[in-house]
Amino acid sequence: LRASLKKYPAGKTYYVKVWHEGLKKHYEINTHQAQKRKADVFLDKFLGDYNEWSKQKLEESNPTYLHNAVQAFIKHKRGDGQTSKGTIEGYELALNDLIECCPNPKMDVNGLGTLVKVGTVLYEYKRKLDNTLTLSTVNIRLRSVKAFLHWLYDQDQIKKIPKITITTTPPRDKLYPKEFEGLMKYVNDPIVTSWIRFARFTGYRLREIPKVHLGENGYYQAIGKRGKKREINLSDELVDLLHKIQATNYKPARISKSFQLAYRKYVLSQNSDYLPDGYSIDEIQLIGRDKINRQIAKLYIDRYCLQHGLDKGDLTEGQKRTAMTQGKTFHCLRHLYCTEVQIATGDYQKTKSIMAHSSVIITERYTHLDTIESTKAISEQMMKAQA
């Protein structure tokens, strides 16, 4: 048994430093004693209780305990060199919530239950998510739990993977060209206009735009997710927009809020019954942000209740938040660009390369092709090719 007393040069008390053979690691236990004689007494007592202490540490380190399994999974993801920081943060959020739903800190991962069995950890977890988060966020959390369970299965720590069903949601990132044209009427800042138009015709993400620069090969580039470089041959007009953007200190958050406000004004212009009292469609630009947001909230919640046959008074916080996701965000511009690239190329592999996506599956998710809607654009492309 390797155990000894240790005192740090600047410390006041002695520590017992002990090696745990089973766990292959050192532990330091504070004796809370400044005198060597009293620390020796503490050490003798510790050695007498060593077997019990050792068993307790082994039990606490049981890899099938949920909190230990979560720590091991996160550690694995941090070290695999393939998982982005944002994805890992998503795993941590989802799995910490899962731990909070466990009544027993020593919960075994084989006892999590299922999403449909009342009273089990997974059932209570799903119920908590549904009551507090949007449907899209619920799906993100469930995908994280699903990845964790598959990893446990690969590690032979669980015998069977509980079924995790992801509810499909209608694409909320689809922005129609007519919506784009409509919202642009309510953007009255030329710099914000430059940001929106640049994203619309390049597909760069909001936070990538300030970092776009001219590469040594003569093409403009920016580093995106997972360190992937995306290059574009910009037209003179787009280069001019980029220079206007980068000559100012507008923050991405400001651009995002401006886009959202413009879209909401456009939505109100199409639903005049929800305009504040005393305002007409021609006066939408005069309505303050807070009033716009209040009226939009009423519209989205009414629309959500109508679609799902619900009463406003019965909505959970999660349902209210889901209702508010009916709006469009700046990121929709990237989806719109991707959709039009796919119509132009007709080749998912080529579109994937242009977008710098990590897989064709992601490209397919980004392209919102409406068969009837896209026929005009496809015909125009064919006619241009024959001209």
TrEMBL record:
<dbReference type="InterPro" id="IPR010998">
    <property type="entry name" value="Integrase_recombinase_N"/>
</dbReference>
<dbReference type="InterPro" id="IPR011010">
    <property type="entry name" value="DNA_brk_join_enz"/>
</dbReference>
<dbReference type="InterPro" id="IPR013762">
    <property type="entry name" value="Integrase-like_cat_sf"/>
</dbReference>
<dbReference type="Pfam" id="PF00589">
    <property type="entry name" value="Phage_integrase"/>
</dbReference>
<dbReference type="GO" id="GO:0015074">
    <property type="term" value="P:DNA integration"/>
</dbReference>
<dbReference type="InterPro" id="IPR050090">
    <property type="entry name" value="Tyrosine_recombinase_XerCD"/>
</dbReference>
<feature type="domain" description="Core-binding (CB)">
    <location>
        <begin position="64"/>
        <end position="153"/>
    </location>
</feature>
<keyword id="KW-0238">DNA-binding</keyword>
<comment type="similarity">
    <text>Belongs to the 'phage' integrase family.</text>
</comment>
<dbReference type="InterPro" id="IPR044068">
    <property type="entry name" value="CB"/>
</dbReference>
<dbReference type="GO" id="GO:0003677">
    <property type="term" value="F:DNA binding"/>
</dbReference>
<protein>
    <recommendedName>
        <fullName>Core-binding (CB) domain-containing protein</fullName>
    </recommendedName>
</protein>
<dbReference type="InterPro" id="IPR002104">
    <property type="entry name" value="Integrase_catalytic"/>
</dbReference>
<dbReference type="GO" id="GO:0006310">
    <property type="term" value="P:DNA recombination"/>
</dbReference>
<keyword id="KW-0233">DNA recombination</keyword>
